[in-house]
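From the pipeline queue, job 12 of 40. The input is one protein chain; the requested action is below.

Action: predict structure.
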Amino acid sequence: MAANAPVDWRISDRRLYLAAAILFPLIILIGFGRTYYFKMFSGTPALPTLLVHLHAIVMTAWVVLFVSQVGLIRTKNAKVHMKLGMLGVALAVLIVIVGFFTAAAAAKYGSFATPPDIPSKVFLVVPLFDLIGFIGTFGAAFYYRKQFATHKRFMLLTVINFLPPALGRLPIQSLQSLGPLMFFGIPALLTIGVFVYDWRHNGKVNRPFLIGCILLIASFPLRFIIAGTDAWMTFATWVTSWAA
């Protein structure tokens, strides 16, 4: 029985990443369907700037890249996976740059995506922390790129980090009524679940992954702690000064 354990773990591990490769684009598609992908059928407000379209393009490209990378590993195309990973680095830089200016413009000029009862500069904490989380998780994935077991765990965290915006737009009123408890709570629970799953099936704790999970979960309540403080509002004013 013990001799079969590593094989069973690898099969279970592949299933986890396959599930992520299916559910991640599905949640993104449903979440942003009304406001972007299928907005011609939904009657939602027109998208105001080319910057928003560019942001959507690079984020969609990231979803496609993640799914492609999972597929390449499942089909044992490790060399292609590594080459495509370098393209991922360039795409990650674009995501951060475009995401920053998109968030700054939304905070300065307003956006229909900003909750009406929250000042835009206060809400700026949400997209900026998403970017900080992405820099941290993808940066760690790149750092551990030669340690595949740790690398893939951090790539999974990049997916969880990008879930809140899509979850916050799911057209399910009962979920929307829960507010931050839902769109931050679900990613937090997923992070805990993935860590416990990994711990049980691997038989030991991956320490870098544990640290990444703790920091990602901590980032959710941290946003509420600093949003609206004098220090944050000063910083938010500086950020909006970069908006065109």
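Job complete. Residues 5-37 form the longest helix (33 residues).
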